[in-house]
Amino acid sequence: MSQQKRAYIETYGCQMNISDSELMYGILAEQGYTAADSAEEADVILVNTCAIRDHAEQRVIGRVGQLQQIRQSRPELLIGVTGCMAQRMGEDLLKHAGQVDLVMGPDAYRQLPEKLASLAPAPPKPSPRSSLPVMGAPKGGLTVLGFDPFENYEGITARRTSAVSAWVPIQRGCNYRCTYCIVPYVRGDEKNRDPEQILAEVRALAADGVPEVTLLGQTVNSYEHGDWSFPRLLREVARVDGIRRVRFTSPHPNDFTRDLVEVMAEEPTVCSQLHLPVQSGHNRTLKRMLRRYTVEQYLEKIEWVREAIPHIALSTDVIVAFPGETDEEYEATLDLMRTVRYDDAFMYKYSLRDGTPATRLPAEQFVPDEVGQARLERLIATHREIQAEIYRAEVGCVEEVLVEKTGRRGGLQGRTESNKVVTFEGPESLIGGFAEVRLVSTTGATFGGELVESAVAAEPVA
Ligand code: SAH
Ligand code: SF4
Ligand code: F3S
Is residue 299 scored above 70 in pLDDT? Predict the structure, then answer.
């Protein structure tokens, strides 16, 4: 390459997508690209997208339209759309999202440098004025879609965005078919990475001084490879020298076993935190969502963890207004929230995703938007009240905080073992290490703290 090209990747969606963007930067770096600090400075802009809800997609369409303006000063610029929405919409994206040069699904990232090279120098483009959102398929757009059952991106060194906490994908795709969910159709079937490769990656991270890893998969605990199960892998990862904190997301309740609880309780580096998506508090809805567990089974699993790890922090995902959800079923979800008392929750209004089984439910079952919105707002209010009570009760405690960065309003920001955000005053030299912090105030969802001591700050990892 005559001159170093600069790439900028903007990421939407879940941790898997953040991790994929780190992989894409890694793949591009191998071919001599550097990372641009902003879209405006880039030769290649990739928008790595999410398809989980309509709202997520609308944002991307708007953003890609906006990015066209950069072409006015950089006519050679290439704009690509990658990720789940790229896989879902394919060629249609070329029509709907302004001028897009490349549309690439999540299994094709190894081909990024090659495909970008085939696009450059940019094909003749319309004049800058008419290059704002165009109707109809523009010339030159390239689509690379489809699944590769063997692509796990082994051998690629991701370009990590944090030196403190690393995402480690252990699984791609999903074998569940929850009736509302687009993920299996945009990411394909579940495929699990070789455990030795995963462990090698974690050891390398530890050697680089990264103290925290989060194992990633859509149903991370259904991981299976030869005689390796998820609990076995988690135990091994937890025992890697230098790793101080291990998290994993998202486990599926159906694959959540006593063996896993045992590892969580026994391994001191596995954080006392669990994100266990419940989706609904009513068995009929759960069944129609094809979640494969009952409320009773879910609550029993929550009991196991709470018994084994009494101070565990719990979080969840909930969908309201799934087609056919009655008032009574919705109330059952509120009851479940009051029973479990989650430390954190991500709550959504059902969004219809073309191609998913739930779209075939009778039209009259679809919950009117105002009803869905009201259900969502009440659920959020109910959860927030509980969350604030939990947080207020923790004020006064001293926590070990892994210091991640400077806070948005100055000071430092980090997380407790239970994954709660704390901001506090202290020297920047603490970033990357652990500090003892007394929780002195709360917004109801984050803490303000005061440094007690920084005994184990930023010690190099052997
Ligand atoms: N694999 C994870 C979920 C990934 S998607 C799991 O099974 O737990 C993250 C969350 O988005 C889901 O847990 C669900 O709560 C929400 N979600 C998925 N599809 C949705 C849809 N069509 N409408 C609204 N929320 C949805
Ligand atoms: Fe979607 Fe269900 Fe798979 Fe999670 S388990 S990604 S909600 S299909
Ligand atoms: Fe979105 Fe794809 Fe993740 S649809 S939630 S970015 S797997």
Answer: yes
Please give the average per-residue pLDDT across 77-89, as a whole number: 97
Question: How many alpha carbons lie under 13 Å from residue 421 in its C-beta half-sphere?
Answer: 13
Closest-lying ligand 2 atom to the alpha carbon of residue 250: 4
Q: Are 93 and 100 in contact (CB under 8 A)?
A: yes
Angle, vertex CA 62, rays to CA 58 and CA 63, nearest 5? 115
Query: Is 60 exceeded by the pLDDT of residue 176?
Result: yes
- Is residue 250 in contact with ligand 1, taking CB distance under 6 Å? yes
CA atoms in the 13 A half-sphere facing the CB of 361? 19
First to last CA, the chain: 38
Q: Please, what are the domains in the chain?
A: 6-144 (3.40.50.12160), 171-392 (3.80.30.20), 395-454 (2.40.50.140)
Distance 247 CA to ligand 3 centre (A): 19
Quick one: how far is CA 444 from the chain centroid?
Answer: 23
288 Cβ neighbours under 8 A, 6+ residues apart: 179, 322, 323, 324, 358, 361
| pLDDT confidence of residue 408 | 82
Instruction: Determine whether the shortest distance from the Cβ of 47 to ligand 3 is under 6 A.
Output: no
